[in-house]
Specification:
192 residues; single chain; 7 strands; five-stranded parallel sheet; Rossmann fold; two-stranded antiparallel sheet; nucleotide-binding; globular
Length: 192
């Protein structure tokens, strides 16, 4: 039997990786195994080998054709890993580039991955802004409340298009400040 392929997305700073890690820990205690793969890290490893970027945050500033090629390489590699295993693909529905939004899962990526579920991790834009300001480990572009809200809205629209193409379902999981456990519970219920 094929494993479940779940794409978990969210704008930078929403805490999607934190929610994923919490859900995986909880599921492991129940004997439900998932492998988490970060799509951007997979792309970055290819970019680094080709001397295209020295950190993940530089990738969104690469030429669009280069980003597309890196996406394809990541999709092919991740699809080959999935097989019968349950897999979580930690990624972004859209990536904000200097020339506009780039679909994180364009048609050629979706064709390779064919996810069962797309999860959008969201929270209030002001919470995301504060998280970004407190994260010195990343070189993120500074955006205000309105830009973050627009990015989340655009992610919803793009995710609906992903569902139209693949037939997957969409689930929104909230990662509110001080309510991480509730977000983890919601993701666990989808992953079971």
């Amino acid at each position: 039997m094929l494993g479940k392929k779940v794409v978990v997305t969210g704008v930078p700073g929403v805490g999607k990786t934190t929610v994923i890690n919490g859900a995986m820990e909880r599921l492991a205690t129940e004997g439900v195994a998932y492998k988490a793969v970060n799509f951007g890290t997979f792309m970055f490893e290819v970019a680094k080998k080709e001397n295209l970027a020295s950190d993940r945050d530089e990738m969104r500033k690469l030429e669009k054709d280069v980003q597309k090629r890196l996406q394809q390489a990541a999709a092919t590699g991740i699809a080959a890993m999935s097989g019968e295993a349950n897999i979580i693909i930690d990624t972004h529905s859209t990536v904000k580039t200097p020339t506009g939004f780039l679909a994180g899962l364009p048609e050629w990526v979706l064709r390779e991955l064919m996810p069962d579920i797309v999860v959008l991790v969201e929270t209030d834009p002001d919470q995301i802004l504060m998280r970004r300001l407190g994260d010195a480990s990343r070189a993120r572009d500074m955006e205000g409340y309105r830009a973050i809200a627009e990015h989340q809205e655009f992610n919803r629209a793009v995710s609906a298009a992903y569902a139209m193409y693949t037939g997957c379902t969409i689930k929104i999981v909230r990662n509110e400040n001080f309510l991480l456990e509730q977000g983890i519970d919601d993701l666990v219920s989808v992953l079971r």
